[in-house]
Hints:
Elements: H1 5-11, E1 16-21, H2 28-36, E2 40-44, H3 52-65, E3 68-72, H4 78-86, E4 91-94, H5 100-108, H6 134-144, E5 146-151, H7 154-158, H8 160-164, E6 171-174, H9 176-182, H10 192-208, E7 211-216, H11 219-227, E8 232-237, H12 238-253
Parallel strand pairs: 1-2, 1-8, 2-3, 3-4, 4-5, 5-6, 6-7, 7-8
Amino acid sequence: MRKNETKGRLKKGEVVAGVALQQLRSTELPRLLGAAGFDYLFIDAEHGGFNMETMQDMVKAAAQAGITPLIRVAELRYSLVARALDIGAQGIILPRVEDPELLRTALSWTRFPPRGMRGFGITPPQIDYRAASMVEIMAAANEETLNIVQFESVEALERSHELLGVEGIDVAMIGPADLSISMGLPGEFDHPQLVRGIERFIGDCEQHGVIPGIHCRSTEMAKPWIAKGMRLVGCGSEITMLIERAQSMINELGISARGINKPALD
């Protein structure tokens, strides 16, 4: 099994940075992001339109480029979690988690017995055609898989101690967009109520020995949260990255951008 470098860095207490892939179906994106120095990417199967074959190709490209490929599944279903891992994802992001029992079950799908309930579906390409026994493959997969749980609602924050106490969570990641909506503050990412709620959440994570993370819309939004203790930090998506740099180039040239407005994207 391939080493999960992002999980390894987190275990050492380091901060890791990543990007979401939401729209563009290209295997060049993982290679580009790896070359740029990002630690991980996550393929968004919750909001993106990717099919399984596209995700498999992108995961393979990411692994070859040395960037950790994660997949955010659309919902907590065994078939989605198992297939994402079987095509080579080195970690799973579980969205919109609020129920501890459902979370416990979902986490069990990410690990092989006796630590979980994952069925064996790893094929030779996922282990680079190396010779290994089922026992060796299962043990390595259990060790290297990164489990990330998203907290995206007021209810999730209110039940944080119940949820964070579930065994098997590596990272608890705030989704600030949906959380701001749940608080009745859509898009007000600097609102004191939202900031205080996330700060308390970081403390809750520390109490439970869970790594805190957040996926922000920009580096400007992400930097303060690194200073506050977030250690897995997402910085926008391939679309925001492209549009922001494109607009910056036009502005630097002193040419009108024809009135194009910056889109509101995750």
